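BUG-249 | component: ligand-complex export | severity: low

The export step for zinc ion jobs runs without errors, but we want the raw record kept on the ticket for reference. Input record follows.
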Amino acid sequence: MGNNGSSGASRRPSGSSSSSSRKKSGGVSRRALLIGGGAVAAAGTAAVLARDTVKRLWWQVPGVEKPRKPGELDYPGATWVPASEANWRRADRPDDFPVDRVIIHVTQGSFASAVKVFQDPAHQAATHYIVGQDGRVVQMIRELDVAYQAGNRSYNERAVGIEHEGFVDRPKDLTKEMYAASARLTASICARHGIPVDREHIIGHVEVPGTDHTDPGPHWDWDRYMELVRRAATAPATASPSASPSAKA
Ligand SMILES: [Zn+2]
């Protein structure tokens, strides 16, 4: 669960608050921005020194937007449903932060309720993807952006997060279709970011340092899941058999 899981609802996504990133962007002046944007000939020494900072922060400056295509997906097997912008932070991964973790969550609720809370600006948390018990996948945040998912700033910055529809104390919620769809998604994320397919890099929310969340819970079958991810990682790309007819895993 992103942040309001029954497994220990912490009210604040510690280390991931949007206010801290806004504070940072306050230091970037319009002038520095123009320089960072390419007018280097006009740059003095200070501006050159500022360039690295500007490169990292320019997308946070009001009025400047990195060009993105609306509805663009990182994973072709997903459907795009945008999360509220209050639940993630604009970034430029992997250029600003390397991506080296996949974090597995369980929603503690229905698919629809997870979509709804991730669209709610008051929720202050979300993951990049949600996988349903029927194997459907929605992407709500671009992988280049930082999702407030783990309650740990550095893990948020380095990870892609996947929610799974269900409750941690209900083993039957963890369906075959969900495992299979999630494994294809994780294999794709690992391939695209060069993440090793192992338990050091594919972790549960519970394994994030400092978290008080317990998901994906004791019924999540890691051996089975990792085997499916390994299989999907080595299999040739094929059409997804269920839920996403247009998908290419
Ligand atoms: Zn979680």
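Assignee comment: Attached the raw record above. The domain at 79-234 is CATH 3.40.80.10 (Lysozyme-like).
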